[in-house]
Amino acid sequence: MTDNTWLNRWDERYSSEEFAYGTEPNNYLREQLSKLKPGKILFPAEGEGRNAVFAATQGWQVSAFDISANGRNKALQLAEKQQIAIDYQVGELSTLNYQKGQFDAIALIYAHFPGDIKSSIHQMLNQYLREGGFIIFEAFSKNHLEYIAKNEKVGGPKDVESLFSIEEIKTDFPNYDIIELAETEIELSEGLFHNGTGSVIRFVGQKLA
């Protein structure tokens, strides 16, 4: 069940006219999508749609979801501006009707779910990816708290349970050929809320079975 505080936080963040994380796609996503043949892709916790809209401009058939209706509204505005279509649903993953093996790729870009549900969401998403499909993942690492302490503008959750470790990714996605899995320091410049040096986990995996 969605915690109303959690929902209100994201609805509030996406309520202003300005885009919280900008309208340009995430750099890592852009780089990884360029290596793949376009197909069907899912964007969980997609917020204001910058990554989903970019993927659609690259020829992908895009599905996305988030708990925030404000996020969806801005994503659809952005899609209209780019003259492309995306399927964007509002709700929790367990209530949405995706099919087993429906997607060729799933992009988890700063998809920080509450600590007590994040692994179960990853396991649910795994079912919706076809065999041979790809996960593209970038999110803040557990060590990122040190970076927030130095510079709040870099953004990211402030509770360690919502952050990620390499070990957690290996546990959550055991049935993958790991193409890349690393913790790395990067410079972020994404809209209002991701600015400065941060520590992230990056993962690209291909589903074995």
From TrEMBL:
<keyword id="KW-0808">Transferase</keyword>
<dbReference type="InterPro" id="IPR029063">
    <property type="entry name" value="SAM-dependent_MTases_sf"/>
</dbReference>
<dbReference type="Pfam" id="PF13649">
    <property type="entry name" value="Methyltransf_25"/>
</dbReference>
<dbReference type="InterPro" id="IPR041698">
    <property type="entry name" value="Methyltransf_25"/>
</dbReference>
<feature type="domain" description="Methyltransferase">
    <location>
        <begin position="46"/>
        <end position="133"/>
    </location>
</feature>
<keyword id="KW-0489">Methyltransferase</keyword>
<dbReference type="GO" id="GO:0008168">
    <property type="term" value="F:methyltransferase activity"/>
</dbReference>
<dbReference type="GO" id="GO:0032259">
    <property type="term" value="P:methylation"/>
</dbReference>
<protein>
    <submittedName>
        <fullName>Class I SAM-dependent methyltransferase</fullName>
    </submittedName>
</protein>
